[in-house]
Design goal:
The protein is built from 18 helices and 25 strands. A hairpin with a 2-residue loop joins strand 16 (396-397) and strand 17. The chain binds glyceraldehyde-3-phosphate.
């Protein structure tokens, strides 16, 4: 710690051990030595990886980073054992899980969810300690995930009802249902280590696939309490955990050619590396949520109060560590000064502190290299003419980074192009609306945009070019993923595939048809199968 740092006003945010409130206490560190493979807990005797918190604790003369715990560092042997368990459970589509009636599968998932709900407080506390997410947002992440599971169950029942009938076209009867794809590798991001991972894992699971689940790099110990819920709710081998270094263990798993679906939320760089190691790329289905650089466009007629408030939450919720965060703000030159004044005023009012502090918005960052990365972005922007226009902007103390508002941003700066994924807010002015439109057209990303204005005709004219560049145009509202029943997707390098409660069921399954020509023999046989419930697939039963 430099002398400059030790006198920082932000040094005061880190508490001493006796200042941790009751509702944040956890018995740390947690040594996780059990891991779930093939329906059983195995005990880890190998090397462990230490997991540190973004929170430091003040002691007599220094600050010490909290050790949250340790997780197994798999070798290739355990990774392949997890893969083999998943392959065996699927058994080329003949396993207990992929052939189980949908109603029974739903029963297993309900059982899991009931058990998961009992772990809420433990998971919420781990979210705070592991990734620095505020208590309110951590609770929201947990509850949103539970709701996502219930909504998924309802969507599956609906899908099951609509596919339970037998159709007849051109003299051929058919029952068309959705079947599983095989082994799904699920990898999620650290910013939503529970919710985003489960937004692929749960639909993949309920459609009858078997799962290899690699938790995110940060936000990994919070999955530990859920391992026993998986073990006690699903047949052996249906959910298998992967712990360790992705570079070491994911490559051999993919090289085996035995993964059928790659569900990944993270960077396009890592997604490309992993995908390329599969020997049969045509067989591998991918569902990817990648980077984004969502801009806000503030028109001259915008309601400044709404624009500034939405841009604050849009750019700084969870310190800007959201793929949907506003990462570039374009404001019309005629209102730039009042907009920036209001934005800065609102920013100055945001509470900073520990994740458990009431109403806190700005908290320490979990990635150890992030402060240096953000400083690099800020220095680069300054070298091309930007200034930090807010008081304390860019100040850093250990893992805490106070937001830096950079103005004026231009295309020479890295922050113009790179996804900062942190508390740095570049602002640029425009005189012609084609300037922000061109920015979006030239961007590598195409997830969402937020447009602020009150003129109906101008807004209508802007919507039409924008909907063909991004996948969601938000009017006078920040960008966001939810509600989870709406499509969440992106163009260009931002995503592959569409996720929503309903879409995800389709992503992790394939339409499969049983067809028969209209003849007495076939009618007799199918009637017998249906009436005596001899098949789980060829069945007109449906679930209410
Ligand atoms: O990190 C990307 C998340 O999907 C964003 O979700 O808009 O609900 O924060 P959110």
């Amino acid at each position: 710690m430099s002398t400059e740092q030790s006198t920082s006003i932000f040094a005061g945010i880190f508490p001493s051990a006796d200042q941790i409130p009751e509702n944040a206490k956890l018995d740390l560190p947690i040594k996780q030595s059990q891991y779930l493979i093939n329906g059983e807990f195995r005990t880890w005797n190998g090397t462990f990886t230490k997991i540190y918190s973004p929170v430091y604790l003040k002691n007599a003369d220094n600050f010490e980073q909290v050790l949250v715990g340790e997780i197994p560092h798999y070798t290739v042997e355990e990774a392949m054992s997890a893969l083999h368990a998943a392959v065996k459970a699927y058994d080329l589509g003949r396993g207990e899980w992929p052939t189980m009636p949908v109603k029974k599968r739903i029963g297993c998932l309900i059982n899991f969810t009931e058990k998961m709900k009992t772990k809420r407080e433990e998971v919420v506390r781990l979210l705070m300690w592991e990734i620095g997410k505020s208590r309110a947002d951590s609770e929201k992440e947990f509850d949103r995930t539970v709701q996502y599971i219930y909504d998924t169950i309802d969507a599956l029942k609906e899908l099951d009802r609509t596919t339970s009938k037998i159709q007849k076209e051109e003299g051929i009867y058919a029952q068309i249902r959705r079947g599983p794809l095989g082994v799904v590798l699920c990898m999620g991001p650290y910013n939503y280590p529970l919710n985003e991972t489960f937004s692929t894992l749960i639909p993949a699971l309920i459609m009858g696939n078997s799962i290899l689940f690699k938790p995110a790099k940060y936000g990994v110990l919070l999955i530990n309490p859920l391992q026993e819920c998986f073990r006690d709710s699903f047949p052996a081998g249906v959910v298998n955990m992967l712990y360790g270094d992705g570079k070491e263990i994911i490559t051999p798993i993919m090289e085996s050619g035995k993964v059928d679906v790659f569900a990944f939320i993270g960077t396009s760089r890592v997604a490309n590396i992993i995908r390329k190691s599969h020997p049969k790329p045509n067989r591998l289905r991918a569902c990817l949520g990648l980077e984004a650089k969502n801009p806000a466009i503030i028109l001259p007629d915008a309601d400044l109060e709404i624009a500034a408030s939405e841009c604050i939450t849009g750019s700084l919720s969870f310190n800007g560590q959201r793929c949907t965060a506003l990462k570039m703000i374009f404001v019309h030159e005629s209102i730039a000064v009042p907009f920036m004044d209001l934005y800065k005023q609102k920013l100055a009012a945001l509470k900073y502190g520990m994740p458990w502090s009431e109403k806190v918005m700005l908290t320490p960052l979990p990635e150890d290299n992030k402060p240096a990365y953000l400083k690099g972005l800020i220095d680069d922007a300054k070298s091309y003419g930007a200034q930090i226009i807010n008081e304390h902007g860019g100040d850093n103390f250990l893992s805490f980074n106070y937001p830096a508002v950079l103005f004026p941003a231009n295309e020479k700066m890295r922050v113009w192009h790179e996804e900062q994924f942190g508390p740095v807010i570049p602002i640029a002015t425009f005189s012609d609306i084609n300037e922000p439109i061109t920015y979006i057209q030239n961007s590598n990303y195409g997830q969402q945009v937020a447009v602020f204005g009150t003129d109906h005709d101008k807004m209508a004219k802007l919507i039409d070019p924008l909907v063909n560049q991004v996948c969601r145009v938000n009017i006078n509202s920040q960008c966001q993923r939810g509600p989870d029943k709406y499509p969440f997707n992106g163009r260009k390098d931002s995503a592959e595939g569409t996720l929503s409660v309903q879409d995800a069921l389709r992503v992790f399954s394939i339409r499969t048809t049983v067809a028969f020509k209209d003849s007495a023999i076939n009618r007799d046989m199918v009637n017998d199968i249906l009436e005596n419930r001899k098949s789980n697939f060829l069945s007109t039963d449906y679930i209410l």
